[in-house]
Amino acid sequence: MKKIEYGYATYYIRSSVLGGQVLSELDNSGSWSRGYVYAGSTMMAVQQYGGVFWQYEDAVTKSKRTTDINGNIVSVIETDPWGADTNRSSYAAFQPRKFTSYDRDGNGSDEAMFRRYNRKHSHFDQPDPYDGSYDVSDPQSFNRYAYVENDPVSLIDRTGLMGDFPEAYWGFGHFENGFWGSGYLSGDGWGSDPHPGLRIIQATEERFDRYYWNRGHNWGNREGHLRGWSSDFDSPNFSPLLPQNPATECPPVQFKVTGIAPGQAPYTTAISETPRANIPDGDVAIKPRNFGVKGINGNNRDVFLNMRLRVDWSTAGPAGAPPGIPTEGPFRPADVVGPASVRNSPGNLIDVYNYSSKKDAWASTRTVMVTAVIPVNKSGVKCPEGN
Amino acid sequence: MLVIVMVCAAFSSAGFSQNCKYSGTRAWNEMIRYVTADCAGEFTSPNKHLLLKFAPNGTMSIKGKTIHLRGRRVEPPAMVSWSPRSDVFFVNDGEGSGMTSTFRLFRIKGTQIYEDKAVEKAVVSLYRRRIGCSRSALDPDVSGFGWGDGGSKIYLLVQATVHQPCGNQLISLVVRTSDGKVLETLSEKQTKERFGSLLPSSLFTE
Known about the structure:
The complex is a heterodimer of chains A (387) and B (206).
Chain A: E1 2-5, E2 8-14, E3 22-26, E4 32-39, E5 42-48, E6 51-57, E7 64-67, E8 73-77, E9 97-99, E10 102-104, E11 110-111, E12 116-118, E13 123-124, H1 167-170, H2 199-214, H3 231-234, E14 247-249, E15 253-259, E16 283-286, H4 301-305, E17 308-317, E18 332-336, H5 340-343, E19 349-352, H6 358-362, E20 366-375
Parallel strand pairs in A: 15-19, 16-18
Antiparallel strand pairs in A: 1-2, 2-3, 3-4, 4-5, 5-6, 6-7, 7-8, 9-10, 10-11, 11-12, 12-13, 14-20, 15-20, 16-19, 17-20
Chain B: E1 4-5, E2 33-35, E3 41-44, E4 51-54, E5 60-62, E6 65-66, E7 78-82, E8 88-93, E9 102-109, E10 112-116, H1 118-131, E11 141-148, E12 153-159, E13 170-176, E14 182-186, H2 188-195
Antiparallel strand pairs in B: 2-7, 3-4, 4-5, 5-6, 7-8, 8-9, 9-10, 11-12, 12-13, 13-14
């Protein structure tokens, strides 16, 4: 399947084994750009930018977190159960699956395989194509546009054809046989499970134990907290949106923050080295000298890519976050400021991608306090100093 | 039953890392190619006689001979395009960021390669005059985006920079390759109509 967005083509390769789920995406030039890993119908990981990123979804709120292999959260998606955006997301454009397993297009609607879902209207744009779903004993089934019979908290619809219970509720066995090395989950569950009735939560716990184990943390007593549905477990344990590897949280210092709209900056970026059509909303361009280095190179590229910049908009002058800003942060460096005369001039500066219009971008300049969180490094990348 | 599909490449422990896969790939259209920062790139002339190489530091060479520049060296990210006649090529120099662009034209005469700065100078001057922007504003970004009439014309895009912009317009120009004379000046609307297929649609968001 081919999609053209902003003049840039994306090709989707679907799997007949997984009921049509997208396995990988190819970019405009036909090169592989993103892959998806599933357990059953649940997406578990996405491969992109040369790495693997794990996906976690709250079964009730449908909020998502994406972490890198070290457990650092790189993307937060906070929607309501209907998939509507909230202002609590950050790096939401890191991967395109915003709501359930739907691919959210640039126009804001969701590709739901057999139909398109519209989170603004909270229903599908097309009627249910499956005549067999009429049920005279279930009046809601006669609403042909409704999403999961208007019960998005309990149900999920991955194909646009039928509502179903999320695996995280009932545990249909997708974590058996040790994808996560989950010993006592490998049996039939109810009989041998030392925690009857909590089986899938245990599986989820395995995922998080693995996740925290990778980070070198001991979460052995987590089990005691697990009583109830998985929503009791998932949400509170997401860490602050900061790198979890050893990192330095710098003192806040003043930055000038301005914006960039699509098309204003035409080439590949200098840090993430991707075509600009692929830059996620909220990525930023930085001045390397603000962080103690002259430029970007193989020694410091990863440090910048794992850096986060938190903006305190309450300190903004002129007051308030600028209109049209795609996200209020935290921000991730993906590019360096140009041209050289601006890049090498005094003063702290970041440019935020992708404002929807040039007019908004040009009018977006603010001075504001910014806190940088920088991975501990030997590349000379250090905290910015005050202007 | 457990169904797990491991997609494509093997898991990497590298995390984010340098990504040279776009270097040399198609940029805005088939005529121009990306040169990614810190990555090598090779671009063969249409007549197959000349191979333009970019070293990861941006140094250019043809037939193994480094192209010595009088002024600033090219700092990728950049874009490159050979004229269909193989006697000229241009580089859209991203000056180390790709956020801005300087148009750099290189002519080949016999074994000599030299940079012709007159075209960019004339185009910048025309834009500044047309917009009437202040002296303190930065020069606009100039990018080549193709060739017309078998290489006798160059298509150029001129637009305001992100910082300290000179106006906020986007125009395109058709320039004669041989002497850099500006043959046509097109507004944003005309540019979209005539050259929309050669340029990213994101340019025309207003």
